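Hello K.,

You asked for the raw outputs rather than the summary table, so here they are, unedited. I folded two proteins back to back in the same session to keep the settings identical. This is the first:
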Amino acid sequence: MRYSKRSAQPLPQMNRNTALTTREAIARLLLHGPLTASAIAEELSLTIPAVRRHLDIMVEEGVAVAVDPSPYQERGRGRPAKLFHLSDVGRSHFGHAYDDLAVDALRMVRKLGGERALVDFSQQHMHDVVAGITPLDRDATRADVQECAEKIAQAFNKCGYATSVENARGGIQICQHHCPVAHVAHDFPALCAAEHHILSELLNTPIQRLSTIAYGAHTCTTNVTVPHNSIQNHAERSEA
């Protein structure tokens, strides 16, 4: 069985003569984050022109979306290649964890306990997701912040969020490429607020939510500021 280099998960059995199966494999890769045509070609051992033909069809059908890279992310020289994301239609093929049942349950929580009960439930849920991760101190180094963000991403991935940590100007970004509760979070923003709260609590540094899947974006992106003195603090610790 073939495995994706990016996600370490098995890809669908591919018949190279079956375009639909190839596009299913591409969609599986995009579920774990945005990719360029060349990156997809490398993952699936296909030519870049062949991948672009499939991507053009997926974009035309509304399954995928082509976008320019985020201006916040670090870039090399030359014109940046377009990134391809799954659209909301594309994500729907992979299902959502709660949807109708969760909406009914959260409505009942709010009816019985009011907004405070809904907030408490949402925050407890997020604490359960990241259980075992220790909050950072104020003097944490960039390496500390990076390590904590990676632990958060791993915890989120276990719950189906397809999360990655990317370098960005002035810090890093936590990018969730799939949200198993996106449709629910649209009606209950307390879920997104609780997620933001737990990220701030664990990372203990200024963060900013740049986009959310629940409100139409391709990813849930949180910018994490790394203090300028973090490198200096790290050097001082090493000399001590």
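The second followed immediately with the same parameters:
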Amino acid sequence: MSVSIPAGRINKLFGTDGGVMLSLYADFPADFDTDTPLLVTIDALEVPLWCERFERRGASGAVAAFADFDTERRAQELLGLEFRIRFDEENDDEFYMEDLIGFAVTGFEMRHGGTENGGNGGNDDGNNANNDTCNDDGSRGGSNDNANANSAGSDAGDSMPPAGQFAGRVADYYDSEANPLFELEIGGRRVLVPAAEEFIAHIDFEGRTMKMVLPEGLIDL
């Protein structure tokens, strides 16, 4: 999206060949070049003025001559007019992948069937095994052992993500048109994963965190 802002005013004639003196506002760009038109309003229409000559005179002045206004009589039509310059607004949503270096990253790997790896995939088999285990007297067994195992698993889970999930940080970014990569530091080791938008589920720029969803097995490569 582009916007035009007031950038100066055409004050008076300069010479007899259509030259004019300009007053430049503070917003007038320091790197202005003659490929950019100055915009004025004439009879309710926006008219671009293309500079055939533009010379700075101090910090807030300039001498200019415009195509199609190259005589003293034509240049007089412009006196007193305020001119504008059009700028392209930057998109605040845009970012570069290297901006994500240092972000904390969490996520999980997807199984080929499209489900989260490390979820409840083995519960049915485990439950069936528990139900089929009996003591010599015919009573159901294995409950205490399973409870102890579950308790041990819970304690271990307090210090690391569940299987199939990962947590770490973005250590580096390698730019490549063919295959840009993130280098993730996870559990004391570094792995390379594709820096593709399709694998990025969410980015929190204020909190400097990113969530990723990766194909199964990618972290182990």
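The chain has two domains: 3-87, 95-110+161-220.

Happy to rerun anything if the numbers look odd on your end.

Regards,
P.
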